[in-house]
Amino acid sequence: MVQKRMPDTLVKHIEIDKNNHQKRQGLSICLKGSPQSICIYWDSVFMSCGEDCQEETIAAHICCIAREALIVTINKDMITKWEKAKYRVFKKVVNYKRNQERLQKVLHKKYLDLAEVYYLRVPLSEKGWGTCEISLPLLEKWHIQKEELIEQVNANMEQEGYQMMQIQQYLTNHKISIEGEGDIPCYLILNQRMEFAAGVITHPQIMKRFMEQIGSDGYLLPSSIDEFLVVPALQGISPDALSAMVQEVNQTVLSPGSFLSDHVYYCHKETGEVEIC
Question: Whole-model pTM above 0.90?
Answer without folding.
Answer: no
